[in-house]
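Fill in residues.
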């Protein structure tokens, strides 16, 4: 158990937890409609679900996921899809509290519960729940339906990399995991909990943090987890987001893994909404403060420079530029036209072959970059 782990059934909501919930809510608001359009069943698996509410009544991740779906303006058009919510919580008291909260949530909706939304609450360890799911799939010779797995522990135990890899090996499965990096920074080379780290990373390479200090040590342990999510779990795209406490230290990273560029786009959009500075971090110290810059101030110059550097002398479809921005830069495709292409065209740095008189329509706009 990490230090500072609450022992009471409920605990207070920190600003960084609220930020985590904002990312989750924002992402699911995009994920549910997209997935339900193409699939007959989708799963939201909350592996470390918590008690359902925080001490002052704020909703926890299970209620956030449920209300994001049920209150979605598109929900009436998602009737053709079955949504299965699996909430797994090890603590007996917290699992009981969660059951009560979900019952209350359903009652408040006047008993009119949609027949395509199913809930399963497991008072169990995540590892056991995941193994049970795998066992059932094996028996049924079935594949896991498209799944968003939210894995949100207090510490570094109970989320083995090998298990995540087995569970989420199917194409449309995604992971949003809370990697408590400050425990790794403190103990990775102490020899005290090596077995736990072997499980967490699925490799012994954490031992190579030996001798590294400060930012270099943090970065090494960040990059190691990212590498393992790509190599062991087979996620093509991984995006992290750092959470700082009020002393300005990163306490954990949320890592998102997917094989799908639409998912990556939704998650980058969600993360930018929480950190409008585009640094993929949130700090408790800055919570609630006014932002002193515009998105354009931050994005325009570096994005233009990145494009000029990468595409100098080439002619490309605007779609290729969107893909590049999404996968290879910290920016979002939504930034491309307004903050890069329009100013570059005005400055004469690109010429544009477009179907109409203005804009950069996808599929039909070719951009020629001046040679370097
Ligand atoms: C960080 S809290 C989860 C918060 C919740 N996801 C939310 O956002 O509202 C972690 C929860 O995992 C539970 N837990 C601890 N070990 C577990 C395990 N091995 N499997 C499942 N749940 C566990 C704890 O009791 C605690 O409620």
């Amino acid at each position: 158990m990490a230090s500072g782990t609450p022992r009471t059934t409920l605990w207070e909501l920190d600003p960084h937890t609220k930020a985590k919930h904002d990312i989750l809510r924002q992402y699911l608001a995009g994920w549910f409609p997209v997935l339900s359009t193409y699939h007959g069943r989708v799963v939201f698996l909350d592996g470390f679900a918590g008690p359902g509410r925080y001490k002052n009544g704020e909703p926890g991740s299970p209620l956030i996921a449920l209300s994001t779906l049920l209150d979605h303006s598109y929900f009436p058009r998602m009737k053709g899809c079955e949504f299965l919510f699996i909430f797994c919580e090890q603590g007996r008291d917290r699992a009981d509290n969660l059951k009560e909260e979900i019952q209350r949530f359903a009652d408040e909706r006047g008993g009119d519960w949609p027949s395509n939304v199913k809930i399963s609450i497991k008072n169990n360890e995540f590892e056991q729940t995941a193994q049970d799911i795998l066992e059932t799939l094996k028996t049924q010779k079935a594949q896991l339906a498209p799944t968003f797995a939210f894995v949100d522990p207090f510490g570094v135990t109970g989320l083995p990399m090998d298990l995540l890899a087995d569970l989420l090996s199917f194409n449309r499965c995604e992971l949003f995991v809370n990697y408590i990096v400050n425990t790794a920074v403190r103990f990775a080379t102490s020899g005290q909990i090596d077995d736990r780290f072997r499980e967490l990373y699925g490799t012994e390479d954490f031992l190579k943090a030996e001798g590294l200090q400060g930012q270099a040590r943090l970065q090494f342990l960040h990059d190691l987890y990212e590498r393992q999510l790509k190599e062991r779990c087979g996620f093509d795209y991984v995006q992290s987001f750092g959470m700082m406490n009020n002393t300005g230290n990163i306490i954990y990273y949320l890592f998102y893994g997917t094989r799908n560029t639409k998912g990556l786009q939704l998650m980058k959009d969600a993360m930018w909404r929480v950190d409008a500075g585009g640094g993929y971090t949130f700090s408790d110290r800055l919570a609630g403060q006014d932002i002193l810059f515009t998105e354009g101030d931050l994005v325009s110059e570096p994005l233009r420079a990145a494009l000029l550097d990468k595409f100098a002398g080439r002619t490309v479809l605007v779609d290729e530029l969107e893909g590049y921005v999404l996968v290879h830069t910290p920016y979002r495709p939504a930034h491309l036209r307004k903050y890069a292409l329009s100013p570059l065209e005005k400055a004469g740095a690109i010429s544009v072959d477009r179907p109409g008189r203005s804009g950069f329509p996808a599929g039909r706009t070719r951009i020629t970059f001046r040679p370097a």
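The chain has a mean pLDDT of 95.
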